[in-house]
Amino acid sequence: MDPLTRGPAPRRRCPGGRNRPAGGRAGFVLAETLVAFAVLAVGLGLIFTGIAVALRSDGRAAANRAALREAQGLLARAGLVEPLATSDRHGGEPGSARWRMTIVRVVPAAAETATAGAPPPLAAFWVDVTVSMPDGSGAALAGLKLAQRR
Question: Domain span at residue 94?
Answer without folding.
Answer: 27-113+120-148
